[in-house]
Amino acid sequence: KLYTYSLANSANPQLKGNIDVGFSIETIFSYKDKLFIGSGTAMYVYSLANPAQPAKLGQATHVRACDPVVANDSLAYVTVRSGSRCGGNVSALIVYDVKYVTQPIERNRVIMESPWGLGINGIRLYVCNGNNGLNVYDITDPIRPVLKKQLSGNTFYDVIILDNMMIAMIEGGTAIFELKANE
């Protein structure tokens, strides 16, 4: 379920609603007036026109797998990872065209070893690749990510991008990286 709260009185948040979202929810990514929700079987797109009651706009169903998601104005980047509790047999970075959010369309698939969480910052896409490190993709051509470098030495699980900083969840703790333009 997705629960919504009013924070008008931050000392006393008020529950405003809840909706069933889907099976095996993995991530939620807010972008402008939309929520992108990754689950074990699909990516869902919800409108935040009424934040108290998000409305489902569309979904893209995929193979059963773990499913983090990030997005921009026209594309959503989803990682699917097979194995363990996730099931499935595909490990990949999938690029969806979400220009028409009611009907997301798969535009590209990049096979990976063990994709986990991901983050986007301008023309860079950072994809955690488990014990294979962190993949840094150039998305100048956003449908065709180009691997620019791979950071090894740590097992990367997830990243959060804040301005020019990347906070990474790695095995054994957290690492913070400064992001520089075009790196």
Q: How would you portray this structure in words?
A:
The chain is mainly beta and 183 residues long. Helices cover 0% and strands 54% of the residues. It contains no helices and 17 strands. It has strands spanning 2-6, 14-19, 25-31, 34-39, 42-47, 55-61, 69-71, 75-80, 92-97, 105-111, 118-121, 124-128, 134-138, 146-151, 156-162, 165-170, 173-178. The strands form five sheets. A four-stranded antiparallel beta sheet has the order 3-4-5-6, with no helix packed on it. It has a four-stranded antiparallel beta sheet with strand order 7-8-9-10, with no helix packed on it. The chain has a four-stranded antiparallel beta sheet with strand order 11-12-13-14, with no helix packed on it. A hairpin with a 2-residue loop joins β3 (25-31) and β4. The protein starts with a strand and ends in a 5-residue tail after the last strand. The mean pLDDT is 90.
Summary keywords:
single chain, 183 residues, 17 strands, mainly beta, 4-stranded antiparallel beta sheet, globular
